[in-house]
Amino acid sequence: MLNLKTNPKLVVALAFGCVLCGIALYGCSSGQNPSAGPTTAPVDQAAAPTTQPIFALFGPPPQKTGVQLWAENCGRCHNIRPPEEFSGAQWDVIVHHMRLRANLTGEEAQEIVKFLQASH
Amino acid sequence: MRRILCGVLVVVPLLLSNAKAQDTSQPISRQEFDELKKDNAQMKQDNAEMKKELADLKKQQTDQATNADQDEQYTQSSFQAVNAELAKDKPGTEGLVIAGDAAFGFTTQRKTESSFNADVSPLILWQPPDSHFLIETAFDLGIGQGNGPESDPAENQNSNFAVNLADVSYILCDNCMVGGGLFAVPFGQYHNHFDPPWINKFPDAPLAFGDDAIGPTSEVGFFTKGAIPSGTTRWTYDAYVANGPNLVTTDPATAGQLNFNDYGDLNNNKAVGGRIGFLPFPQLEMGYSIQASRVNPDGVGFPNTSALLQAVDFSYRPVIDALGGQFDLRGEWIWSHVGGATYDPTAALGFGPVAFTNDRNGGYVQLCYRPTKADSKIIQSIELVSRYDAITNPLGSPGGDHEQRWTMGVDYWVTPYIVLETAYEIDKKKVGPDQNAFLFEVGIGL
């Protein structure tokens, strides 16, 4: 019988094993190139929906521009830093680091890098 | 007849006048006529040649202008290509970044001497040409912040050096990264997100995350992490296996506590843990963390002892127009349970035998407000900060106490990443003396 107090490691390992299996099935089988840019076309501002529901648990994620993702994800923990503070090449490395810290998807990270590099 | 006579009278004088005019010029000889004809032909030829030369000159000028444009374009493109090549080889602009943070400050606290302190934490990021990889290294150089393992009391230098990060990560797919090394443990959010001085907003760390932390900071092991968007929400996950904390069994002052700063392992058992985060909308994140491990040293006769750590956390950072600014609400709480054991059972170490229920908990809640909608830039740069933090260690354990603090402060943002922080702490302890404190710090993000 699984008991959190008597056998905590097994419970934790099983729980995260299940989560990781789900992630592997969902994420890594989606056919997306891990290093390539976003698989979707750049967001057309005019075509993008102007209103999004505040909370929708299911369905495709809303397409967001690099500046939106930059403001939402960076600004959640700290003041956002101006794009001109670092070069485009430096932003590439820094956003990679922040992808690890803030658990960003590859597509989100790519959009943010593109925005920061274009803002110079 | 009359008409003919009139015609003769008109024509004869005209012929006579014409003959008289011809008489005024010299007659042209055949030779002169040929020379004139020759000169005329020569002039026509010269004229044609000059026209041709003029056309050639014009063509040449046009060609030269075109060539000059082409040369300029070629030079510019070559220059740009050379610059791009040079930029690639220039340190710090391609694949290598040195960032981090720094802080210096002053603390005056009851029952202790006031002191200045300083801390520099460089972060070196290296992304090899294969951008799937990222190598991170961070270390901490501190003065006046407690006795670190490298301090030398004989020289009266209260300095410390600690490596906080030394890991390699690899992008497995859009939603998953894996890595290994010495990494920031995703147990709660504080050490993973909030502990740099310009992000923390307070001159010191919450009790449960400071010097006597009851949760992990960095660990040596393997990790995986990523995010899964779902509708307008987002799930994040972290999982790791690491050496884990070590149970202190022989120190009379700290026996029963978990040592999270020793990255080695005392046994063959490894810690497993992770965190699940949920973001219903971008400004709000909630998370649950858990870690389990056996923590007793092997081979010294100490009974097997397990530790189970759990934590919940949240952060919410909305801009509320009606209230004229940005709010920052964060909170985290940790619970730890370490299996029962008797410390110094034979009293050989002079403080035992000691046995107690080894359950600890602690955390913080903080609320900050910055009037970002104010008209004055000075007012916009001020942030009011408040925090409640507490820690509960078993009273029957070595060093056991219940401590709680209320902190109020004012920060001033010089730039988005340079902040002047002031705070006053009201401290309440159940066992030791209350240690109210005034703190000042300059925090810089590099």
Q: What is the annotated CATH architecture of the domain at 185-445 in chain B? A: Beta Barrel
Biggest chain pair contact, residues each? A-B, 60 and 71 residues
Question: Structural class of chain A, please?
Answer: mainly alpha
Low-confidence stretches of chain B: 147-154
CATH fold descriptor of the largest domain in chain A: Cytochrome Bc1 Complex, Chain D, domain 2
The coarse overall form of chain B would be elongated
The unreliable regions of chain A are: 30-50
Give the helix level of chain A as a range of percent.
Answer: 40-55%
List keywords for this structure.
heterodimer, A: 120 residues, mainly alpha, Cytochrome Bc1 Complex, Chain D, domain 2, 2 domains, 4 helices, extended, B: 446 residues, alpha+beta, Porin, 16-stranded antiparallel beta barrel, two-stranded antiparallel ribbon, 5 helices, 21% helix, elongated
The gist of it:
Chain A has 120 residues and is mainly α. Chain A contains four helices and no strands.
List the helices and strands and how they pair.
The complex is a heterodimer of chains A (120) and B (446).
Chain A: H1 8-28, H2 66-74, H3 88-102, H4 106-118
Helix pairs in contact in A: 2-4, 3-4
Chain B: H1 2-22, H2 30-89, E1 96-109, E2 115-126, E3 133-143, E4 159-173, E5 176-184, H3 190-194, H4 197-200, E6 218-230, E7 233-242, E8 246-247, E9 258-259, E10 271-281, E11 284-294, E12 306-316, E13 319-320, E14 325-338, E15 342-343, E16 354-355, E17 358-370, H5 377-380, E18 382-392, E19 402-415, E20 418-429, E21 437-445
Antiparallel strand pairs in B: 1-2, 1-21, 2-3, 3-4, 4-5, 5-6, 6-7, 7-10, 8-9, 10-11, 11-12, 12-14, 13-14, 14-17, 15-16, 17-18, 18-19, 19-20, 20-21
